[in-house]
C-alpha cells in the first residue's frame, strides 16, 4: 500500500516542540517535529500540524472513559500521527497504535536547588545531631563526677577519716586516674576531630540537603512539606496509585487528595520552592542543564523507564513503513 501523500500530525507546545500560528494554521518546530520531518522526507509525504483544543495535554481518560488531548484526537481519528516524545503505555494500546521504539523515556522529577546553609549554623555541621546530644550529656555528667571524686579524695586526705587499707586507697587512686585520663583523651579526640572538619565547611559553604530521590519526596509530600505536579494529561498519577511501591502510592494519593494540577512537560517555567515537577530526564537536561551546571535539582532515581514511540491512530494504513524508516533512522544515528 502506498503511503498517503498528506497526513495530519498532532503536537503540543513544549521545550521540545515550539508552535507558532500563521494564516495556514499551526507551524511546529523543534526536536520532536524533526523526527516527523525525517519520516516525511523518507516516505515522501506532506503534513499539517494540529493542536488539541480541549486542554487535555498529552491525553488521559475522563471520568466517563473518553480520552482527551493528543490521545483523544488519535482515538477519534482526527489526526494520523503524533509529534511528541511519548512513552509506550499499556492503557493506550486499546485506542491507538505505537511505532517501533526510537528512544527511551526516563520519568523523574525536578526541584529547586537547595539553599546554602546559614553561616550561623555552619559551626554545628561537623557533628550530627545525635553526636551533639551525646557530647552535651557527656560534658554535663563527667565534669561533675570528677569534681565529686576529687572533693572526696581531698576530704579523706585532710581529715584522715578513711578506715580503708592502703592497698584499697591505691586501687581507688588508680581507678580515678584511669577515669580522668580517659576523659582527657576523649576531649582531645573531639577537639581535633571538630577542628579538622570545620575547616572544610568554612572553605566551601555547604548547601541544605534537599529532596533527591523518590523516598525523600514521598516523605516530604506525606508531611505536607512538598507538592508534586505531574505532566498535564499524563496517566502518571493513576499509575502511581496502583503501583506496588509504597512511596509511589504516597505521592500519587497526595496528588489526588490535594488536587495539584498538571504542568506542561518541559515548559521551562520556574519551579517554585517546595515543589517537585515530573518530567523526562533528557528534557530536564535540555531545559535546565546537566549537573553541576543545572539550574534545578534533578532526582537521582526515576519513576520508571519506558520506550518512546510515535503514536498513530488505530486504523492507520502504513505502520509497517513507518517502523522500517524509524529503524533506519535510529540505526543510522540520524535521530
UniProtKB/TrEMBL annotation:
Residues 18-76 form the Ionotropic glutamate receptor L-glutamate and glycine-binding domain. Keywords: Cell membrane, Glycoprotein, Ion channel, Ion transport, Ligand-gated ion channel, Membrane, Receptor, Transmembrane, Transmembrane helix, Transport. SMART domains: Lig_chan-Glu_bd. It is a multi-pass membrane protein. GO terms for cellular component: plasma membrane. It comes from the Eukaryota. GO terms for molecular function: ligand-gated monoatomic ion channel activity. Coiled coil: none annotated. Its main location: membrane. One of its GO terms (biological process) is detection of stimulus involved in sensory perception. Pfam families: Lig_chan, Lig_chan-Glu_bd. The chain crosses the membrane at residues 121-142, 184-204. It is found in: Cell membrane. Belongs to the glutamate-gated ion channel (TC 1.A.10.1) family. This is Lig_chan-Glu_bd domain-containing protein. The lineage of its organism: Eukaryota, Metazoa, Ecdysozoa, Arthropoda, Chelicerata.
Amino acid at each position: 500500500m502506498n503511503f498517503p501523500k498528506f497526513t495530519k500530525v498532532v503536537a503540543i507546545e513544549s521545550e521540545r516542540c515550539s508552535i507558532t500560528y500563521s494564516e495556514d494554521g499551526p507551524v511546529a518546530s523543534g526536536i520532536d517535529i524533526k523526527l516527523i520531518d525525517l519520516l516525511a522526507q523518507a516516505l515522501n509525504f506532506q503534513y499539517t500540524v494540529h493542536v488539541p483544543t480541549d486542554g487535555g495535554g498529552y491525553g488521559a481518560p475522563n471520568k466517563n472513559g473518553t480520552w482527551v488531548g493528543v490521545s483523544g484526537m488519535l482515538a477519534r481519528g482526527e489526526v494520523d500521527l503524533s509529534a511528541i516524545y511519548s512513552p509506550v503505555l499499556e492503557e493506550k494500546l486499546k485506542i491507538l497504535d505505537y511505532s517501533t521504539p526510537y528512544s527511551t523515556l526516563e520519568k523523574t522529577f525536578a526541584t529547586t536547588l537547595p539553599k546554602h546553609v546559614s553561616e550561623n549554623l555552619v559551626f554545628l555541621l561537623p557533628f550530627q545531631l545525635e553526636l551533639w546530644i551525646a557530647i552535651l550529656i557527656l560534658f554535663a555528667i563527667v565534669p561533675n563526677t570528677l569534681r565529686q571524686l576529687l572533693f572526696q579524695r581531698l576530704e579523706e586526705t585532710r581529715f584522715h577519716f578513711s578506715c580503708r587499707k592502703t592497698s584499697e586507697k591505691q586501687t581507688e587512686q588508680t581507678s580515678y586516674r584511669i577515669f580522668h585520663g580517659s576523659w582527657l583523651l576523649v576531649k582531645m579526640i573531639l577537639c581535633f576531630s571538630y577542628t579538622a572538619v570545620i575547616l572544610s565547611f568554612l572553605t566551601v559553604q555547604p548547601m541544605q540537603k534537599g529532596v533527591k530521590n523518590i523516598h525523600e519526596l514521598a516523605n516530604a509530600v506525606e508531611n505536607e512539606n512538598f507538592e508534586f505536579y505531574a505532566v498535564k494529561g499524563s496517566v502518571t498519577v493513576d499509575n502511581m496509585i496502583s503501583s506496588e511501591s509504597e512511596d509511589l502510592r504516597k505521592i500519587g494519593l497526595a496528588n489526588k487528595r490535594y488536587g495539584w494540577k498538571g504542568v506542561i512537560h518541559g515548559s521551562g517555567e520556574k519551579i517554585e520552592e517546595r515543589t517537585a515537577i515530573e518530567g523526562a530526564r533528557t528534557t530536564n537536561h535540555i531545559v535546565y542543564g546537566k549537573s553541576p551546571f543545572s539550574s534545578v535539582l534533578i532526582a537521582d532515581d526515576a519513576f520508571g523507564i519506558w520506550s518512546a514511540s510515535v503514536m498513530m491512530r488505530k486504523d492507520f494504513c502504513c505502520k509497517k513503513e513507518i517502523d522500517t524508516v524509524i529503524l533506519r533512522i535510529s540505526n543510522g544515528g540520524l535521530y
